[in-house]
Amino acid sequence: MAVHLGDEAPNFTANTTDGKLDFHKYLGDSWGVLFSHPKDFTPVCTTELGRVAALKPEWDKRNVKVIGLSVDATTDHEAWAKDIEETQGTAPNYPIIGDDDFKVSELYDMLPGGTTGEAKERTPADNMTVRNVYVIAPDKKVRMILTYPMTTGRNFDEILRVIDSLQLNATHQVATPADWKQGDDVIITAAVTNEDAEKRFPGYKTLKPYLRITPQPK
């Protein structure tokens, strides 16, 4: 079954570079980012895994746990990690799922159900749909899904921006406008009445009855 926004992130137990883990237990009370890759030793993915490792202080600041996935065994991941450190300057400092049985890729509908064969015999093109990013809230609900082509490296600054927006919404019932960045004005959601808005966001501006603007809450 396809995974949609608002669904509970499907749980699973899998072998990773940090040993066997239960996905939901791994996330605990943290936010989570699951990002997937079609194959080890692929060039774009190599740069992505290094970038995510370099961003560890930013994930930690936001209480985010990151976990990668690639359609190969964990033994291949360990060899790949050496290349990532050599070429990108930072080795992966988060678990990477070994999905050589396609279990997680199928569970998240990134590969068709019933996918068979040896992972080593499959090419990146065979697994080209395994290029998703899922942002998962502490309640285990999926809050964001992005799918990237194999030829385009993911923008992790944008993923951090989305997490910032989601966390603001979870705490303050505000939304963020187009091209929002930290410190910009935000939008008061329809869930907040005008009466409540006057108490919670004094001095807010009404551009239209459905469009109320306020400085970003701290």
Using brief descriptors, characterize the structure shown.
218 residues, 2 domains, alpha+beta, four-stranded antiparallel beta sheet, 7 helices, Glutaredoxin
Mind explaining what this structure looks like?
By secondary structure, the chain is of the alpha+beta class. It contains 7 helices and 11 strands. It has 2 domains: 13-154, Glutaredoxin (3-Layer(aba) Sandwich); 173-214, Antioxidant, Horf6, Chain A, domain 2 (2-Layer Sandwich), CATH 3.30.1020. The chain has helices at 23-27, 43-54, 56-61, 74-88, 103-107, 156-172, 194-200; strands at residues 13-16, 19-22, 31-37, 64-70, 96-98, 132-136, 142-147, 174-175, 186-188, 205-208, 211-214. The strands form 3 sheets. A 5-stranded mixed sheet has the order 5-4-3-6-7. Strands 8-9-11-10 form a 4-stranded antiparallel sheet. Strands 1-2 form a two-stranded antiparallel sheet. The protein is elongated.
Q: How many strands?
A: 11
Order of helices and strands: EEHEHHEHEHEEHEEHEE
Distance between the termini: 39 Å
**How many separate structural domains?**
2
Q: Which CATH architecture of the largest domain is right?
A: 3-Layer(aba) Sandwich
Which secondary structure elements does this structure contain, and how are they paired or packed?
Elements: E1 13-16, E2 19-22, H1 23-27, E3 31-37, H2 43-54, H3 56-61, E4 64-70, H4 74-88, E5 96-98, H5 103-107, E6 132-136, E7 142-147, H6 156-172, E8 174-175, E9 186-188, H7 194-200, E10 205-208, E11 211-214
Parallel strand pairs: 3-4, 4-5
Antiparallel strand pairs: 1-2, 3-6, 6-7, 8-9, 9-11, 10-11
